[in-house]
Write a structure and sequence with these properties.
The protein has 211 residues and is mainly alpha-helical. 55% of the residues lie in helices and 0% in strands. It has helices spanning 3-9, 21-29, 43-56, 70-80, 84-105, 114-125, 129-142, 155-176, 178-183.
């Protein structure tokens, strides 16, 4: 699945458009550490998160998720910024993804290989529109307060929900990062007056303007 397709098909909610200064500072404070250990997720789910992000936003002609420390950011964001109900949901879905991974490959997620994570991402994020709609419906059913909690977790629907959530946050962080904002997107530190009819070259060469 190519990054440009993910970016093209992704519809970010309004909550991911305006970036609070504290969140932006949190993103910029994340640094590379080969021995990084998550503070919100378990170590095994943190390992899986890094592999999933490398598939969603790989390094090519532009910075990848690993280079921008997006796994560290998502983990810190969930720990320091996210509301309690969002934290519970994210942890539950990460655990469901780990359970589903073991069911698919007969191994713990911490022993997963890049190609196995790629298969999981393709299975859920690359699913047909009808299947994605079905997953959304199943997720909504489990979140209905009028219905009793199910005895068994719907690991497939929650795996889809987890990967979808990670993708949203990853693209948000990628577009918000300083490296991408200044070097990949159309960056103008001192915007000028409104011009209603200008050439494509004057308008950043067709690039999205940096937030």
């Amino acid at each position: 699945m190519k990054r440009r397709d993910l970016l093209k098909n992704l519809g970010l909610g309004a909550g991911y458009v305006v970036v609070a200064p504290s969140v932006f500072s949190l993103l910029q404070s994340c640094t590379s550490d080969p021995d990084w250990q998550p503070i919100f997720l378990t170590a095994s789910n943190g390992y899986a998160l890094k592999h999933v992000l490398d598939i969603i936003i790989p390094k090519d002609e532009t910075p990848g998720a690993g280079e921008l420390n997006i796994a560290q950011f998502i983990d810190s964001y969930m720990d320091k910024v996210a509301k309690e109900h969002e934290q519970r949901s994210f942890k539950a879905q990460a655990n469901a993804f780990a359970i589903n991974f073991k069911s698919e490959f007969d191994k713990d997620i911490v022993d997963g290989k890049p190609e196995e994570f790629e298969k999981m991402v393709a299975k859920y994020l690359g699913a047909e529109k009808e299947k994605r709609a079905e997953y959304d419906q199943r997720l909504s059913a489990t979140q209905d307060p009028e219905k009793p909690e199910k005895e068994e977790i719907d690991t497939e629907a929650n795996s889809y929900g987890y990967l979808n959530n990670v993708r949203d946050k990853a693209v948000w962080a990628w577009k918000t990062s300083e490296a991408v904002g200044e070097n990949v997107l159309w960056y103008d530190p001192v915007p000028g007056a409104y011009k209603g009819c200008i050439s494509l070259e004057e308008a950043g060469g067709g690039k999205i303007m940096s937030l």
